[in-house]
Design goal:
By secondary structure, the chain is mainly α. It is built from 8 helices and no strands. The chain has 2 domains: 196 residues, Up-down Bundle (Four Helix Bundle (Hemerythrin (Met), subunit A)), CATH 1.20.120.30; 301 residues, Helix Hairpins, CATH 1.10.287.
């Protein structure tokens, strides 16, 4: 971690947040798609199967009623019309049954095929009974259907009701599975979010404290060094004031040295300001991270709303099952009424037989026949009333079933629409997550630019120190003409060189923090002071390129006969503090 650059450290923090948010975002999209597919399956597949099964059952009931009416009706034209109605009901049942075959899965295919086979056998029996009834053999037709047709009819009713129950159970199981998947994904998303936020926040706090502490230390070190250099320059100025022969040259050099020190002080202020701005932007990055957490919580709330919508689907399904149970009760009532009609028909036949016997006995005086005939009329009236009741019950059951179907369809469509709207809301929240991450990246980029500014300013400080070093060397060469003050000037130069070495160490440490890599330790220079004889005054020499004092090297004896005396050069402000477009620092 210590050898990583600032860009690498902040990239690590951003990477943790990005991975966390992308993980939660991907998980949310996956679960939204899964819930959407489950809702589509319930609305388009399972509900359609239940609807087709119910229509098939109603058509079979209608065909059964038409078949029984055909046997009971005495009028031949009425029998033919009822026969046609029965064929239409049979065709409707077969059509719905065919659609159901195409919709069901492999688990229910065999059961639907069995229902189809039983219904075909019942249709064959009904056709035979219809032909017998139309041929005047209603008794034989009645016995045929009572003996075989009712058994098949009961089996068909049981199988179809069992299929409807299975389809309802599929809806319930699917919703329960969605609930389990939602809870598992919610817990995983919360855990992942908390873990990512914990790791990212810890890394951000650790890196922020380390960088702030290091930069503050560097700023204080540079400030102290600048103060000491200013003090040393004043000492040089006081010592050089006594040199009458070189006063003009010394004054010019001291002015340039003072200007360079002021530029250095200004650069130190810029470093401190950049450090404060870096801290402020880092705090902004933490606030953006908190915003990201709130957006993730909003996504969790949206997923909770989808879960509530699924529970609503389950409730509507249970209500539909209860209403279908009411339909079954109505149909059982129809069956009971039909049994009453059958019993009346049987009694009518018995009375007719008795009437025939009485008529045979009495001959023309058969008064008993009149009584029996009256009873037959009463029974016929009861049969008509029962038939009317059956018709009313059938009409009511058909209207109720149609109402339930329409209501279920409307409710399912509404719930699917609500789920789609909530999915769109989840997508919008995910977009907000992306915007928050963009804000974090921009804030970290600004911090990186601020730190780069600190690095550039530090490099310029090093160059300014070199300029000061050269100016002091020139002062040292000039003040060799005055033996009484040369030792003080040399001592001041040594002090400046030592402070410059300390500043070089601080700049090297700051460069390590900004760019990473191994730290290059620069030892401060230790200069030896040699006493200067008052009588020894060598003449000034022409400037040479070997007269510059280097940080980390010992200064040569100032009074050596071979040392050359350089002239003072003019140092501009741009040499101390470069501009932003300086071509020398394009690669930094």
């Amino acid at each position: 971690m210590k050898n990583l650059s600032i860009n690498a450290k902040f990239s690590l923090v951003i990477g943790v947040f990005v991975v966390t948010v992308l993980g939660v975002f991907s998980l949310g999209l996956y679960n939204v798609a899964k819930v959407k597919e489950s809702a589509r399956y319930i609305a388009e597949e399972v509900t359609e199967r239940r609807l087709l099964t119910n229509r098939t059952l109603l058509a079979m009931y209608q065909a059964t009623v038409d078949q029984r009416d055909l046997i009971m009706i005495k009028d031949h034209a009425g029998k033919l019309k009822t026969h046609e109605d029965m064929k239409l009901s049979v065709a409707d049942a077969k059509e719905n049954l065919g659609k159901l075959k195409a919709k069901v899965d492999s688990e229910h295919t065999e059961r639907v095929a069995k229902v189809s086979d039983d219904f075909d056998r019942w249709v064959d029996l009904a056709e035979k009974a219809a032909l017998l009834s139309e041929g005047g053999k209603s008794d034989e037709a009645f016995v045929l259907m009572a003996k075989e047709g009712d058994v098949i009819n009961s089996r068909l009713e049981t199988d179809l009701l069992s299929l409807m129950k299975d389809f309802s159970q599929i809806v319930i199981d699917s919703i329960k599975a969605d609930q389990v998947s939602y809870e598992r994904s919610r817990n995983f998303g919360i855990t992942l979010s908390l873990l990512g936020l914990l790791i990212g926040s810890s890394l951000a706090a650790f890196i922020s404290r380390a960088i702030t502490r290091s930069i503050d230390h560097m700023v204080h070190t540079l400030s102290d060094s600048a103060t000491q250099i200013a003090s040393a320059s004043k000492q040089i100025s006081g010592s050089a004031a006594g040199l009458a022969e070189t006063a003009s040259t010394q004054a010019s050099s001291l002015e340039e040295t003072s200007s360079a020190i002021e530029e250095m002080n200004s650069m130190v202020g810029r470093n401190a300001q950049a450090a404060r701005e870096s801290n402020a932007i880092a705090k902004g990055g933490l606030e953006s991270a908190v915003r990201g957490q709130k957006v993730v919580q909003a996504m969790m709330a949206s997923m909770e709303e989808i879960n509530i919508a699924n529970k609503e689907v389950m409730r509507q399904t249970n209500e539909s099952n209860q209403k279908f149970a009411e339909i079954v009760q109505v149909i059982h009532a129809i069956g009971n009424k039909t049994k009453v009609i059958n019993e009346i028909v049987f009694q009518t036949k018995l009375l007719s037989f008795n009437a025939s016997v009485e008529a045979a006995r009495a001959g023309e005086h058969g008064k008993g026949f009149a009584v029996v005939a009256e009873e037959v009329g009463n029974l016929a009236q009861m049969s008509g009333n029962a038939a009317k009741d059956i018709t009313a019950l059938l009409d009511g059951s058909i209207e109720k079933v149609q109402s339930i179907i329409n209501e279920s369809k409307t409710q399912v469509e509404r719930i699917v629409h609500d789920n789609a709207r909530k999915v769109e809301s989840g997508t919008k929240i995910a977009s907000e997550c992306r915007d928050v991450l963009t804000d974090i990246v921009q804030g970290i980029t600004s911090v990186s630019r601020m730190v780069e500014t600190v690095a550039e300013a530090s490099d310029e400080q090093a160059r300014g120190i070199n300029e000061i070093n050269r100016a002091i060397n020139q002062l040292d060469q000039v003040t060799q003409q005055n033996a009484s003050t040369s030792e003080e000037a040399a001592s001041a130069s040594e002090e400046l060189s030592a402070q410059a070495g300390n500043m070089k160490v601080a700049v090297s440490s700051l460069e390590h923090i900004v760019r990473g890599g191994q730290t290059v330790v620069v030892e401060p220079a230790t200069l030896a002071v040699r006493p200067v004889a008052a009588a020894h005054k060598p003449a000034p020499q022409k400037p040479g390129k070997n007269n510059v004092i280097r940080i980390g090297q010992s200064k040569a004896a100032p009074h050596s006969a071979s040392a050359s005396t350089p002239t003072l050069s003019r140092v501009s402000g741009s040499d101390i503090v470069p501009s932003e477009n300086d071509s020398r620092f394009k690669d930094i």
